[in-house]
Every structure is written in C-alpha cells, then in structure tokens.
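Structure in, sequence out. Go:
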C-alpha cells in the first residue's frame, strides 16, 4: 500500500469550516497530543481543501491530514495532482488525498457543473491525474489517494485506480463488505459519527440534526438502502433506527466498542466525528474523554 504514517488506528473527522484557521490549527495540535493519528475534513463550499491541508500539516508535527473529500468538481485533475504531489513532497506519509464526486445539488448550484455518470467521471479524473508529468514535483512520491466510495462499483474503482476507500456514514457491516471488495492490500479508512452522551434523547437529537442534509441526498439514501435500511427510515433527519445505525451513542466505552467493530470488520483506520448540540461545536471536550477508552495517549 502507498505510505500513510498513521501513528494509531483512530483519527478525527471534523467539519471546521466555521472556525478561524488559526483556531483549527490550535485544536489540531491538541488532537495530535491526545494520540489521534489523523485529521480529515470535507469540502462543501467552505474552506479550500488544499490550502487547509497545507496549514494543518505545517502547524503539526506528525498528524496525518486528509481531505475527506476534495470535490473533483472544484478543481481540474492536473491542479489536484500537482497540489497533492507538492504536499506529499513537503510532508511525506502525512497527506492523504481523499477524492469524491460530491452530490448533484452541490455540483450544479455551487460549481455550475454537470453531475452525470459519476463512476466514469471519477475514472477519467484519475486517469488524467496519472498522466501529469513527474517534472511537476521532481523526485516527489505521489501521496495515497482514497475515494469516497459507498456503492460496490466505486469501491472496486478504489481498488483498481486508487490506494483505497474512505466510506462515510456506514455501518461496520458495510466496512466488512468494502474490505472484501478492496482486498487485503488497499487502505480502508471509515468515518464514524459519535454522540458522547448517556441520554438517548440527546443522542438522537444530535444524530437527527447531523443526518438532516444527508437524508435528502440520493447518494446516501441509496447507500442506506443497500445497507439494509428501509425506505421508511429515510425521512428528513432519518428515523430513530437510521440514527442509531449511523451514530454511535453512549458513554466512552460504548462509543469505543463501536469504533472497534469497524476495525474488527477490516478498517485500517477509523475517523471519529463528534456530534455536538450544533454543527460548529468544539469537538475537543469529547475527544479528550474518548482518548483513554480508545487506547490513545
């Protein structure tokens, strides 16, 4: 597998778009001190993914930084490849380029693009990246590419045209199926949302808030149906059944046990996404509590 220098098997996924970048860097340093091996983040109209990666890599010492995902409609494939190679040369083994096709409403509204044939679009994007000349970053090794893969065809493409997959909003059962499709020699980095609370109602409220947007996007709705949920679970914000299936709720030991189920199912690395009372809540209090239960520190 392409080199990724994870210092542990657990990292963090954090939507930090509403935070000033210097505050994000400060929290990234504490995330590193707590023993989490990585920090991944999305790209959906907020901070630009490569600029944020450069800031986080430069502001930490060993933390792996990953785009989860960089939207392929936000930049040309040669620009993505050139940027990734430079970040990889500056910080060997510490930058992961997660790529995704995003969603039709975002692509058509925010990027004025056309969303069709996502699988072939991704395949062609990767082929064009591969064709970029090595002189762009002489002597630099290309960092690992992971694809935002939910369905079997995109997971298979992750195995043949990338270094692995980064599934989001999936169960440990999905992780097991993804590992089978990827084979043993590709990276599988799964995201897991968590609500660190022993009050079930509070946990459900956080989960429903988190799922509100995703439950209206066809890619996730289709993924959940493939994972065994019913059409009746796909109400706006998700049913309680979907909420409890997608979000690990409870005390530190219960949440850690759910993360371990992904690892046991074949994930190489699991990204913990802390859900608070609002989307911009500081994740650090919960991450501090979770770290000992996850064997970090």
């Amino acid at each position: 597998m392409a080199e990724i220098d994870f210092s542990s098997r657990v990292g963090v996924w954090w939507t930090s778009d509403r935070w000033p970048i210097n505050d994000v860097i400060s929290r990234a340093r504490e995330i590193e001190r707590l023993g989490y091996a990585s920090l991944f983040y999305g790209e959906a109209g907020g901070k630009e993914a490569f600029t944020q990666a450069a800031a986080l890599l430069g502001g930490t010492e060993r933390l792996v930084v990953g785009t989860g995902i960089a939207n392929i409609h936000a930049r040309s494939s040669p620009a993505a490849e050139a940027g990734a190679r430079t970040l990889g040369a500056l910080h060997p083994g510490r930058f992961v380029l997660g790529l995704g096709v995003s969603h039709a409403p975002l692509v058509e509204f925010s990027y004025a693009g056309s969303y069709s044939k996502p699988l072939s679009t991704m395949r062609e994007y990767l082929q064009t990246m591969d064709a970029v000349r090595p002189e762009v970053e002489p002597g630099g090794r290309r960092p690992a590419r992971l694809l935002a893969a939910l369905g079997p065809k995109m997971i298979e493409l992750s195995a043949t045209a990338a270094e692995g997959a980064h599934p989001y909003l999936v169960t440990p059962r999905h992780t097991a199926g993804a590992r089978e499709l990827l084979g043993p020699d590709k990276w599988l980095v799964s995201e897991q949302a968590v609500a660190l609370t022993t009050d079930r109602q509070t946990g459900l409220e956080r989960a429903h808030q988190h799922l509100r947007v995703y439950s209206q996007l066809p890619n996730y709705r289709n993924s959940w149906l493939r994972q065994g949920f019913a059409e009746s679970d796909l109400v706006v914000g998700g049913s309680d059944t979907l909420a409890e299936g997608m979000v690990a709720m409870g005390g530190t030991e219960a949440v850690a046990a759910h993360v371990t189920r992904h690892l046991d199912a074949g994930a190489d690395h699991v990204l913990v996404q802390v859900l608070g009372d609002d989307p911009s809540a500081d994740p650090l209090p919960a991450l501090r509590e979770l770290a000992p239960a996850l064997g970090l520190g």
